[in-house]
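Support request, please re-run this one:
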Amino acid sequence: MKTLGQMMGAGWMLAAAMAVLAFPVQTAQAAMEPMRGDDPKHTPVITAPETVKPGEPFQVTIAVGKTMHPSQTDHMIQWIELFADNVPLAHVTLSPVVTQPVVTVTVSLQQSATLRALAQPNHSAPWEGTKPITVTPPAPSKP
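Re-run finished. Output below.
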């Protein structure tokens, strides 16, 4: 299989299509029903603007828990996933001890959606946190 850099010569659309196809198939949605609620150590907290413009990039930070979840070899968050409704946006794999369960990704939306973050601890089903994002229509241009 060619690397992404080698595929860029064949056109960015092909590379983008391959990147989508390479997204992990075994997401938390397929594995186990996520746990919901307001657990101070496990529920992902999403920080993002409440309203954005269509197509305008914005940052989304996901922190696992209101109080930082441990990152030890025997008690850790294995990965964090971000969705816009049910569309996968990002998957970040974490390592124990050397990483903390906080990630920031830059995304853009064309329409309003609910951001869903899933955090998979090594000892239970994944935990889910949500945040609605409203995409505001562009301001009408003045004649």
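The radius of gyration is 17 Å. The first strand starts at residue 44 and ends at 47.
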